[in-house]
Amino acid sequence: MSISPEQSKIAFQKTERALLKLSSGRDAENVHSFRTSTLRLQTLLEQLIPSRDRNQKKLLKMLGRIRKRAGKVRDLDVQLAALRSLKVPQEPRRKTQLMQHLLELRAKHENRLCKLLTKDMIKDVRRRLRRASKEVKLEAGPDPLKVARTTLSRIVRPAGPITEDLLHHYRVVVKRARYAAEFAPKSAESAQFILQLQRLQDAVGNWHDWMTLTQTAAKRIGDENQSSLVAALQHVTGAKFRHAVAALSASPTIQTVPKPVALSAKSPAKAKQTETAA
Q1: Last residue of a domain, which of 121, 141, 161?
Q2: What is the residue range of 126's domain?
Q3: Which residues have a Cβ under 8 Å from the Cβ of 145 and sit 6 or more positions away?
Q4: Longest dimension (CA), the chain
Q5: Are 1 and 69 within one domain?
Q6: Among 79, 110, 141, where does a domain finish?
Q7: Which of 52, 168, 223, 240 is the most core-located residue (most Cβ within 10 A)?
Q8: pLDDT in tens, the chain (278 residues)
Q9: pTM, to two decimals
């Protein structure tokens, strides 16, 4: 099953549209759309195309610079969304202060992103996108579904319990596999496989969003012994962690995954994972 020319064309078109929208407004939807569009295109050019010419390499480098800055804005958007959805009575004042801190950080990174998106930069990227779209050679590319399954098969399954670091690794691998599979021609097989990966990605991604927020809160406020708000966030993150591990265990795309392990809460960079987390 070769690469779908239609999906390849759409990937270039969506990236260009997302770039134009991002240049006109850096709201959460535009930032997210740009990041996902460029990641899909990166998957096509790096994982599915045997070799890249100078234009494609330069294009990926330019898109990577923009995506890196957009990623910092996106990280804050998901933290803000998670914090807004947290309905707890603990420390409302600290919650408001944390919200304000995240908003200020977002404005700072949005300003940096805006400075990068000059007219000349956008013009150059659009020119390279159109050129790459016309010159990309799909005929010699591998089967996208085979590439996706091979990517998943490289996941190292430890003998012991799963940790946060390993779950983060799963998150990255599953995302890459899904984006590769999306370049396969449409079929019942590819649709089912992509749906399974999407569900898995959503579960693990949801945990990662809450873990990031918990880390930010702990760094800003203190650990769970110093703040009931941080303790509440850790409880939610613990539940999301167990749900993500359960999703991995139940997914037909991944082999048996070990049970979750409780992590130490001593380091503010780690969210507490315990069986008592609600």
Answers
A1: 141
A2: 1-141
A3: 1, 181, 184, 189, 190, 193
A4: 59
A5: yes
A6: 141
A7: 240
A8: 588 899 999 999 999 999 999 999 999 999 999 999 999 999 999 999 878 899 999 999 999 999 999 999 999 999 999 999 998 887 889 999 999 999 999 999 999 999 999 999 999 999 999 999 999 888 778 999 999 999 998 776 666 788 898 899 999 999 999 999 999 999 999 999 999 999 999 999 999 999 999 999 999 987 777 788 999 999 999 999 999 999 988 888 876 554 554 443 333 334 333 333 32
A9: 0.84
